[in-house]
Amino acid sequence: MKFKSLKSERKSTTTGEKRNQSLARARTWELKNESEKQFRTNKSDCRGTHPISSQGREIIQACFSNHHNEIGYRIFMRVFEKRPDYQRFVHALGREKWLSSSTELRDYLNNVVSKVHDVTAIEEISRNYGEQHVPLKKYGFKPDFWVSIADAIAIECVILDMANHQPTETVMAWSQLTSLMFTSIRDGYYAALRSQRQLLKNCKNSEWRLTIDSTSSLNDSAPSTGEKFES
Fold it and tell me: Basic and acidic residues bias located where (predicted)?
């Protein structure tokens, strides 16, 4: 399967996408660590309160009030262009499944934004989303991809905002949200992976016990040497 068309599709649409792209990229890297540190502090110190400010939540919802039907594709394409290991994963997965995954990402983001005021709901939605990635492991999926995806989300959403807010504020809001999202995504993924491994282990143990019981049963039913001579 060929994926050269993916790069050509991206090139054909880049001209109209550079509104604030260079600024967004620069500010994303500068503020990401700061916002994640602030997020962790807020989450630990402000029990019962939201780790993202009300203004930040408003910015997030305002971004998604703009047309964003291809947001999942744009995010994945940005990662595809920068990571050879992600490219190998996409080739192994196949174009159709990859495009379907980009749609699932868009739908997931829609659900998160619609529940942005509810931390518990975001965590639950994110855990479920993370669980869905366990079957992709056989194609070469790595949890480390989420680091690049989180960065791409922040950049694309600053572009999506179209300078309606200060880029620094937009980057801060989305970086804090992605920190919350991907913490729970990883939790869901690793919990499902552990559950899968435990299930396989239990199945192997059951098969082993059945084999031992079957062998023991055959040995018990077989006549002894003495019995053979007596007969």
Answer: 1-20
